[in-house]
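Quick one: structure tokens for this chain, please?
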Amino acid sequence: MVSAGLAKEAGFAVNALTIDYNQRHRREIDAARTIADRLGAERHVVLPLDLRRFGGSALTDDIEVPKDGVGPDIPVTYVPARNLVFLSLTLAWAETVGAKDIFIGVNALDYSGYPDCRPEFIAAFENIATLATKVGAQGNAFTIHAPLQYMSKAEIAGEAHRLGLDAGMSWSCYDPQPDGRACGLCDSCRLRKAGFEQAGLVDPTDYAA
């Protein structure tokens, strides 16, 4: 949400791509639709891609989502090469519509655990984007923007507030409850809650715990 808001603030027309990879936290698909609508996206594509056929993650397989706090190791919520897959699909669409600027919302707290959120990966993919495309072969480079890359969760919450974005539109929880509330205990919920608290802002999320 904040990444798209910053793109719009910078004067870009927003084309939003959401990958419906059959993840367990499908609430985020609805959130993406709401955000794209509120931000006035030129177009919002929800692209189906069933990564449950691969499994290998608590988000795409019958693996319990950890609820005991944020640890130092790569968590089981890591979806193998997810951002590489997502960026590749985004690149294909960008080349199709004639866009050369791609925004992705990875940030500093994520790349400490997820290898495909690291700055080195983003820089390497930017190079690959030029090498792998007709546009690149014709001498036009792509730019991968990761405006949240070095922000903390508190700083991201602050940017949402500054941009006048309703943070309640966004979704973070890895394990939504049957009643629709965020679990409040998964890594993503813990980081989100801490970010709002550190920013001195009200977290509009309805948590089960």
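The first strand starts at residue 15 and ends at 20.
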